[in-house]
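Lab channel / #folding
Pinned by the channel admin:
"Please post every new chain as: sequence first, then the structure tokens as a reply. Keep commentary short and put observations after the output so the thread stays searchable."

First post following the new format, from NK:
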Amino acid sequence: MQTSVTILDTIPVTHNVRHYRVERPRGYSFTPGQATEVSIDREGWQDKKRPFTFTCLPDAETLEFTIKSYFDHNGVTNELWSLGAGDRLILRDVWGTIQYRGPGTFIAGGAGVTPFIAILRHLNATGKISGNRLIVSNRTEKDIILRDEFEAMEGLEVLWTLTDDPKSSLLQERIDRGFLARHVEDLKQNFYLCGPDPMVKDLRGLLDEAGADVANVTWEK
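Reply from TO:
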């Protein structure tokens, strides 16, 4: 399935991240954590597909994507930054393996937090956010996506850590074996991982070595 939709508006999130709100096709449904392949409906870009996660609630009247743009090369996300209301995107079938399986710890690297946005928003909206924890690593404090919104979710424990911002008062640690030993006590809980492939692979191995049940670890396969 493939359909073209109009961008309704774009909303700044950080210096290189925006919400893109688009029309919702009739009958188009998803569950929190799922994604679709998106193209820009513009000559020369229709066949350049990139996976983006839905970040709105599943019953929202419109669809939303929260997308980080990379300006160091002329790719899809760089081109997306030039778009605005009235431009069009191509959406395809819904897919994704990051599904909520119960309370646990969500660990993300940078824009890897995006698959967790709809999940946590839905849990918050339905009164089921308590017992969950969000750990996100960013390079600098200004790179944190939706910091105020996550911190306002009553019952969600949030831990930010930075890798290259010594002037910030936030935690300054990489998510490695020592980090997990210091900050994750319950290894029997559910874990949800998303970020750069090497980071996710390392975390899966580290959690396994620490004694976590691999059956309780969810990541985008």
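NK: Residues 197-210 form the longest helix (14 residues).
TO: also worth noting, The mean pLDDT is 96.
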